[in-house]
Amino acid sequence: MGYNLDDTRKKLADVFETSLVSGSMQYFDTHEFVEIIDFFLDQNETVKAERAINNALNQHPHSTSIQIKKADWLYETNMLDESEELIDDIIEFEISNSEALELKGDILIRKENQKEGILYLQKALIGAEDKSELYSKIGIELMQIEELELALQFFLTSLDHNLDDESSLYNATYCYEFLGKQSESISFLLKYIDRVPYSQIAWHQLGLLYYIIEDYKKAIWAFDYATVVDDAFLGAFFEKAKCHEELEEYKEAIDIYKKVQNMADPTAWTYHRLGDVYLKVEDAEQALVNFFNAIHEDPMHAEAWYKIALLYSIYSQSKKSLEYAERAVEIEFDNILYNTFLARLYMRLSKFEQADKIYENLISYEVDDANIWIEYFILLNQLELKNDAVDVLLRSLSYFPENAEILYRLSGVLFGTDREEEAVIFMREALNIDFDKKEVLKINYPLVYHNEYVQDMIFAFKHQDKFF
């Protein structure tokens, strides 16, 4: 049986606690006390750690390693000033003590002095036993202050010291991606795989990168290898299925999603993906079955509720659609897509008051879809709230100042009122922006369109290229 550090620490901690209960403290050397203190700190048992430190200092009052553990305990209990004061004393006498320098760096970082803290972590590298872990820690701190180029170099160096450092592998690929260096990331992963061919993480990350650059066949190749290394790697199977979808290889995608369901308990998201693929092959019945399965697995899976509503709406079952659309909005009340669909459904069912509330909420979100503002304008007109309707269109111009349809509608609604001068201005702007869209005026405001003055404007614009 191999050596197990955790078991050793626990046995030492048990002996220490027994000594405390008996009132006769057993002797432990400094190394054993360090293991006992580390065990308690790892278990977040800070009171026991403090007792161990006090007893350790009684037996070894001049031990630097115990002093560092006391500073570590002060750090863990958020007594940063006391911890820093103690660690400074240690560094003064042992300027190259790696543990002390690392803890000093940690303290400064927690005090939000990241740059100076990172400098101390770098100093700690010289005598560090586990350089890989420290390189990785420095890389993470550099990421926090958005020094990604430098962070990347530390993660790569960490991997040079320890090829099995999965955290640095993930973080290195993240840095490459965030820096927009996909090709460099792919080259890095291919070289890494040459050295560690059975790294499922590297194969998976490589597949994700190929997916991002839309090389779906190579992505499938990478995900295949990830699943060869680990035949229960659900994430890789899932991503592979998505690649087949992109290649319109829907049968292959369906087969993989079903395989994923058989490999583990089915999830709402897997059912949802299956439903989406069945929609793409125009099998609405199977799509509905899978969306229903999705909300059975997770009643809060809003997108499945929305997709069911969408399918019922397509097949003119508006009342059924309404039930599921309302539930989708109830779950994700600020989702623009779901709210827009629900508002339009209310309009179709002549539930104008309910539609009014939804549209009012939508424009409060300052949505960037001009059609939503126009639909709300139409609804307010139907409710005979003409002034409110005009106000909505005027507000919409702040977001869509060159939307010809909005300008034509404003011109149409204001023409013949005491705001006719504004109507003419809006008409000119609309004709300048999109002359052909004057059909909006013809369809919705035929009396205005056929007005002699308006016809003269249209004629003049048509024959002079530009209207002044």
Write the layout of secondary structure elements.
Blueprint: H1 5-22, H2 30-42, H3 46-59, H4 64-76, H5 80-93, H6 98-110, H7 114-124, H8 131-144, H9 148-161, H10 166-178, H11 182-195, H12 200-212, H13 216-229, H14 234-246, H15 250-263, H16 268-280, H17 284-297, H18 302-314, H19 318-331, H20 336-348, H21 352-364, H22 370-382, H23 386-396, H24 404-414, H25 420-433, H26 439-444, H27 446-449, H28 452-464
Helix pairs in contact: 1-2, 2-3, 2-4, 3-4, 4-5, 4-6, 5-6, 6-7, 7-8, 8-9, 8-10, 9-10, 10-11, 10-12, 11-12, 12-13, 12-14, 13-14, 14-15, 15-16, 16-17, 17-18, 18-19, 19-20, 20-21, 21-22, 22-23, 23-24, 24-25, 25-28
Structural write-up:
The termini are far apart. The chain has a domain at 265-325: Serine Threonine Protein Phosphatase 5, Tetratricopeptide repeat. With 468 residues, it is mainly alpha-helical. The protein contains 28 helices and no strands. The longest helix is centred in the N-terminal third of the chain and has 18 residues, at 5-22. Helix 4 packs antiparallel against helix 5 and helix 22 packs antiparallel against helix 23 (386-396). The protein has helices at residues 5-22, 30-42, 46-59, 64-76, 80-93, 98-110, 114-124, 131-144, 148-161, 166-178, 182-195, 200-212, 216-229, 234-246, 250-263, 268-280, 284-297, 302-314, 318-331, 336-348, 352-364, 370-382, 386-396, 404-414, 420-433, 439-444, 446-449, 452-464.
